[in-house]
Design brief:
The chain has eight helices and two strands; from the N terminus they run αααααααββα. The chain is mainly α. The chain starts with a helix and ends in a 16-residue tail after the last helix.
Length: about 200
């Protein structure tokens, strides 16, 4: 049943990404160059809603904190993040949107996905050498949250602050930003570009 639910949710998520234009590299390029911000607004709104639902669900006992996983901080994360951002800007895809674009029939996404798979293979083959550099060693305490999450075993940067309320507060901030930023920074109207 978990696999069926994952397939249904993944397909629904992919369909939404396609509907909002996230599978079109032109739309992503205009967002990353800050020329058209409607997609950014949708992303910020989605993150804000997810934060509020997740942390409010934790507080209400609906979401089990045991299913949450905090990722460790290490130098490789920052380097990988910069590489991902550069690849996103050059290709117009991030991993999720690239897969969805391929599923929607975009031929250019095939090259993106193939490149991602080759990159993953290269990383796997060179993992021991990368690990030997120390780039994968924990920094800043490793697995740390901003505030203390009740029932979680992670250390907090600010243990006296309730992590659930910080998560809800950040969600509200993301939603407010989504509503405050304009569609375009130059004040003009956005131009719809159909998916290819």
């Amino acid at each position: 049943m978990d696999l069926v639910l994952a397939i249904i949710l993944g397909a629904a998520f992919g369909a939404v990404l396609d509907l909002v234009g996230a599978t079109n590299p032109s739309v992503l390029g205009r967002m990353l160059s800050l020329k058209a911000l409607s997609l950014m607004k949708a992303i910020l709104l989605a993150i804000g809603i997810a934060l509020i639902l997740t942390f409010a669900g934790q507080m209400a006992g609906i979401v089990d904190v045991g299913h949450m996983s905090v990722k460790a901080s290490y130098t490789g994360v920052f380097i990988g993040g910069m590489m991902l951002g550069l690849g996103w800007a050059v290709s117009g895809y991030c991993p999720g949107t690239g897969i969805c674009a391929l599923a929607s029939g975009r031929r250019d996404a095939l090259f993106y996905v193939a490149g991602g798979l080759l990159g993953a293979l290269f990383y796997t083959l060179t993992y021991d050498q990368v690990k030997a550099t120390g780039m994968l060693d924990d920094i800043l305490g490793g697995k740390v949250t901003i505030g203390q999450i009740p029932g979680a075993s992670y250390d907090a940067l600010f243990p006296s602050l309730p992590g659930d309320l910080i998560g809800i507060g950040l969600g509200v901030v993301f939603i407010l930003i989504a509503f405050v930023i304009p569609e375009r920074l130059d004040g003009g109207q956005g131009v719809a570009v159909p998916a290819e």
